[in-house]
Amino acid sequence: MKPIYWFSFMVMVGIILLTITKDEIAPNQSLPELETLDLNQLEAMICQFKTGEKLAFKVESTVSVLTEVDQFSGVMSWEVTELKNGSAHIRAAFSDVVFSQQLTQPEERAESPEGMPFVLQVNPDCSISNQGFSKDWSIATRTLVTTLLNNFSFTLPLASTLHWKASTIDGLGNYDASFSVRSNDPLTILREKVNHDSYGNGEFFGVNVKLENSESLAVFDSTSPQWWQSVSGYEKVSIIVPKQQTVIMEQRFSLKNMSALFVTIPDLSWESADFTDVTNTPKKKPLENKYKSYEEAQAVFDNAINETPARFYYAARQLAAWLKENPDDVERVVLELLGDMDDNSRPTAFFALQLSGTDEARSALMELVDHSSLSLVDQARAASALADISKPARDAVDKLLERSSTADIAGNVSLLSIGSMTARIDDSELKQYVLDSLQERSNSVTNNSEAVTIIDAMGNSADLAFTETLVDKLSGDSVAVRRHAAMAISKLPTEQAADALLTQLGNEENPRVTTTLFKALQNTGTNMDKAIPILSERLTLDNDKQRVAIVDLLGSQNTDTARKLLAEQFKRETNARIQQRIGRYVPAAMLK
Question: How many structural domains are present in the chain?
Fold first, then answer.
């Protein structure tokens, strides 16, 4: 399950951890070698249900940090209520739930979902979509069940292949779910997270979160393909805070098909269910001050920071709640930041100022972004917090623009933050002012380092106003400028972005830029059939790195056209390691 406390901690750095866990897979366990597979049998593997069909699954999940553990176990009963366009509508509920939350703070805990109905749509490729709940479910409990189901997400290829990918996102960022068949009898599929691109501003609050390992196995019954027969998995995450011991979070899960345990499910119709996406629903509770003095709030802040593991988000919220109701005490926090506040507390204090959202906090952060008594790192933290505080205002924009004129870490963060805050600006006049300011800065750059930062800021805005500028940068002299321009363009919601990237791909000769163009094209969701002629020509180049990048790009597409091109390359490829890489994506029969 997903521990709600750790969910809250990750909100602080813009990250949410999804739970992947372990039963049969152990860290560093050697997986079975790929067996000879009957591809015709694999092609027939789809999720097939019948109206009225009843299933049940035994689900277990744990997450542990040091000696503390959150645990969940229960029986999930399913009943197929309707078949629609090849997909199944399913009503479900948990029974026999055993649920404990040591890691999760009381105010953030989910309720037990025992006996509470919800509905699902399961597609022919076994993917789950459209999860709906009755309106009395809390956000925390919806999040818990949604995360449990995400753990068991194995998408079948519906085609003859041994390897396939599905691009998706978890709380750490974007990643590819990489699937491979490990056995045919029974059909066993390995899922790994690859190309994980973490996001968030955690580094500016002194936090680094890293996905270390993620592997899961699913077994399907080829004679009765009714979703899972069993699933097991393991995930390891490192949470790194400066000057503190790295915290290791290990998460484990298992699921077994045990239909004899089915229990009757309470009524909930598809039409009456609430399908709100919990990943886009605000999880924060209103800040509620429960302290009698600043000293009491400060003591709670300090104690939470110094606990093992430290409770950074909890600490920030408690101090922010006091400052929201007692805004004059913002000055006391500022004095401590300018004084001898310890390094462990400083990042969270900036976050508390941001969360409080008061005019006093905004004014204080404007003062701190260029305060000579602060380190550049603290100035950068102030800039990031100022950009994210409440509703963007003209004075804050001007201050960040002024700070960004100095080429140091705080100046760069100021410029990047201006780009990120653009989408949150409701005032059309202020938004145009920001767009014009970024464009003017782009027109006046004097070096490649400054150019890269402004390009990244434009990309952060994802605003179509910068389309022409960013496309022009794609053909610049600097390798760094072209690479950053490609990634910035991939964030723009326009078909012109993909066209520009494809055009540059045909002209680009630098392998590092070419690789970045491939990644940018994937980010845009481009139909890669358009790139086949270009990729086919570039597969003949002598540069091994380019060929590897092209192989991975084509392999990720999981199309017959891409597999055919890879099979042709396999027969003429002189590098054995690249041949082996092609084998990840193309059935053995096509390589003969």
Answer: 3
Task: State pTM to two decimals.
Answer: 0.58
**Residue 228 contacts residue 201 (beta carbons within 8 Å):** no
What is the Cα gyration radius of the chain?
Answer: 26
* Domain co-membership, 333 together with 208: no
Q: Which sign does the torsion angle of CA 102, 107, 110, 116 carry? A: positive
Strand spans (E) along 85-162 = 87-101, 118-122, 128-133
Strand partners, 237: 211, 249
Verify that 254 and 326 share a domain, yes or no. no
Q: Which residue has the tokens 């970024």?
A: 438
Same domain, 92 and 204: yes
What is the distance between the alpha carbons of residues 351 and 329, in angstroms, rounded to a whole number?
15
Helix or strand holding residue 332 (H, E): helix 330-338
**Domain assignment of residue 35, yes or no:** yes
Residues 186, 123 share a domain: yes
Residues 69 and 179 in one domain: yes
Which helix (H) or strand (E) segment is 437 a member of? helix 428-443
What digits encode the pLDDT tens for the residues 503-516?
898 888 887 888 78
**Tokens describing residue 397:** 């924009």
In this structure, what DSSP letter does residue 462 have?
T
Reported as a single tens digit per residue, the pLDDT across 300-358 is: 999 988 887 778 878 888 999 999 999 999 999 999 999 989 988 999 999 999 989 99
Residues across the chain: 592
Q: Domain span at residue 357? A: 293-368
Q: Are 19 and 2 in contact (CB under 8 A)?
A: yes
Q: Are residues 133 and 69 part of one domain? A: yes
